[in-house]
Amino acid sequence: MEPQVKSNLVLILDYGSQYTHLITRRIRKLSLFSLCISGSSSLKAISDLNPRVIILSGGPHSVHSENSPCFPDGFVEYVEKNGVLCWKLGGEVSVGEKQEYGRMEIEVVESESRGLFGNRCSGDKQVVWMSHGDEAVKLPDGFRVVARSQQGSVAAIEDRDRRFFGLQYHPEVTHSPEGMETLRNFLFDVCGVVADWKMEDVLEEEIKKYVGALKIMSFVLCLVEWILQLQPPLFIRLLGRGFIVSLLTMVQEERACDGDISKRSSFACNFSLTSDSFSQELENKLGKKPVYLVQGTLYPDVIESRPPPGSGRTHSHTIKSHHNVGGLPKDMKLKLIEPLKLLFKDEVRELGRILNVPEAFLKRHPFHGPGLAVRVLGDVMEGNALETLCQVDEIFIRSIKEAGLYDFIWQAFAVFLPIRSVGVQGDQRTHSHVVALRAVTS
């Protein structure tokens, strides 16, 4: 699934906020297609997408910082044709005397039908989530204050004539209970967009894109990953039956790698070599050689791997590297197909239900490509680390399922730690490795 020019595209420019990609998800929940790109993108890259609405999501940089982000030339003139939410448009900003973080109450001071706050009257209050140190002390020409915090600082502004709007809080988080209503007001009432995106559109786009490409090889990594289990039925529907190959985890090559980044890099390299070798083997045996390699890359993989080398993106930090995002060799022989790379995990599950993928697969916890190797801190072959981790992980997951908790946990896993601890085993003292257990909800 590649970025497409859509008549109701909501484009988000990322300037480094930890919540930027949550905005993307919230907007998609409103049946609107949204994309997030770097705030340092060129005006041409922005205009080529032909967005109906542009949302600017701020970040940790103060406008007074030496390296404060700025717009590309001509951006303000361009966005006068579009709705805008957040960041700087003139006026005067200072470091707030009372910096606002966390739960805060705001009050609507200017009400107007079909505005940011709908039909709320002046004096109405709501709870929001703040996270800022700067505050606006003088508004740009044409703007007016429509909401203030309980401390008196500006919480929301608008310029109706130029269709510019700004919020000084996070409407996208659950800590702002009425935030989704504000986003809905902004997108549908103020900007006039139409809710015209649905998950079935993803299927149609992929069918149009890949019909005729018959030689497909899908690698299912590390036992059964639910993301890739979705792809065979997707591509059988698109292309007819191709090759679907299961691989065991490649760990021997990673035993000398200590850090998770080096392990992922090593895995990417060996994965590429293995896939090229196997495709050649298929050609030798069957006379048919796969041309495409299907990967289960998701949008979070792309997001977390930012900024890739040479991308010029400076506002978002790399959360963790992914072997399938920028890690594969440039001279890889197979061509990549990544039909899910602009979808979040919950959207992939929704797509799976449309394809009638069994719920047992869809409800599986995510399992990354490099497998248990990156859950061993240090040498993966030391002290039977992998064997121990496999056993512990199996017991842990089985116990969670037997307790009826599996579907309520987003992800549960074990990690082999590079430390030893004293314990009792068979009524005797033992000094052995430690395995940590973690279960996460979000």
Automatic annotation (TrEMBL):
Enzyme Commission no: 6.3.5.2
Domain annotation GMPS ATP-PPase: ranges: 1-364
GO cellular component: cytosol
Keyword annotations of the record: ATP-binding, Glutamine amidotransferase, GMP biosynthesis, Ligase, Nucleotide-binding, Purine biosynthesis
Compositional bias segments (type: Basic residues): 314-323
Pathway the protein acts in: Purine metabolism; GMP biosynthesis; GMP from XMP (L-Gln route): step 1/1
This protein's name: GMP synthase (glutamine-hydrolyzing)
Top-rank taxon: Eukaryota
Organism this protein belongs to: Dillenia turbinata
Pfam families tied to this protein: GATase (PF00117), GMP_synt_C (PF00958)
InterPro entries given in the database record: Class_I_gatase-like, GATASE, GMP_synth_C, GMP_synth_GATase, GMPS_ATP_PPase_dom, Rossmann-like_a/b/a_fold
Record PROSITE patterns: GATASE_TYPE_1, GMPS_ATP_PPASE
GO MF terms, alphabetically ordered: ATP binding; GMP synthase activity
Region (Disordered): 306-325
Catalytic EC class: ligase
